Amino acid sequence: MIVPSAKISATGLDTPRGITFGPDGLLYAVDRDARITAWDVSTGTQVRVVVDQSNGIQKAIQAHFLPGTDTMLVGDRGAKTVWKTDSRGSSVARFLPESIKIDEPSIVSSDGTWVYVGDRATKSIRRFQVGSGEPEPGDPWVDKLPDPPEFLIPAHGSTARGATGG
């Protein structure tokens, strides 16, 4: 399957930043120009725009479905937060409490218990409770990384603190 560039197709991507597969089998492509689109992998056609600037998304960076659910989390570098929606973009709400800001969210991942959010600005990974979005006591989970975190695939049910975290 090939997701086209905006130079080739009106429905193509301008600045692709991340991809994830949804529980419906569709490929979800994150376009840093503030939209996430769903694609049929068998035909290579865009099925729908899931969320975009009209939903409050400013600069989408990564998307991730919580394991075993239709709940999609979206890291937004412009809004400095993580949003929660579903595969259809039916409603968009903050996942993180409004008081929590992530300067430059880079990764969003989950093991089913925790949501991991990377911050390029602080070179750290923070961990939040799946149900409430509240940070783990002792936040950040991992800090003082040599480079900004870009990708993370946690083991299901992992609970150990990060290598350099408390």
Notable traits:
single chain; Neuraminidase; mainly beta; four-stranded antiparallel sheet; 0% helix; 166 residues
Question: How is this structure best described in words?
Answer:
The structure is a single chain. It contains no helices and eleven strands. The protein is mostly beta strands. Strand 2 (27-31) and strand 3 form a beta hairpin. The protein is globular and about 45 Å long.
Helix/strand/pairing category: mainly beta
Poorly predicted segments: none
CATH architecture type of one domain? 6 Propeller
What integer is the average pLDDT?
A: 84
Main sheet: strands, sense, barrel: 4 strands, antiparallel
The top-level CATH class of one domain is Mainly Beta
Q: How much β-strand is present in the residues?
A: 35-45%
Query: What global shape is seen?
Result: globular
Radius of gyration: 15 Å
CATH homologous superfamily grouping of one domain: TolB, C-terminal domain
Number of helices: 0
Alpha carbon gap, first and last residue: 43 Å
**Using DSSP, what is the number of strands?**
11
Provide a compact summary of the structure.
This protein has strands spanning 16-21, 27-31, 35-40, 45-51, 60-65, 71-76, 81-86, 93-94, 105-110, 114-119, 124-129. With 166 residues, it is mainly β.
